[in-house]
Amino acid sequence: MKSFKDYANQPKQEEAASAEDLTKQIASAYHGKSNADMLKSILAEAEKSKRAGTLSNEEIENFYQTFSPMLDSVQRKKLRAIVEKLKQI
Fold first, then answer.
1. Per the count of CB atoms within 10 A, which of 10, 13, 29, 87 is most buried?
2. Measured between alpha carbons, how far is 45 from 3 in angstroms, rounded to an integer?
3. How far apart are CA 46 and CA 83, in angstroms?
4. pTM higher than 0.90 for the full model?
């Protein structure tokens, strides 16, 4: 994974296409890894970027808005909790 910011800061007009491309990129980057490994890696990268000042709460929210439609209600609720945790950093 390059950077969380690369994925979170997608232009609105290309949201549908970029969400599909982003899903493919993430799937490729984490092929063969467990959900726990993938989540741990994403959280670590996001936390690192947040602490470095290179990831804003708005970008975190944009990431959530991009991915949440692709998730079921349980997954969406978990992602929302993670987003809120990251925003507190």
1. 10
2. 7
3. 10
4. no
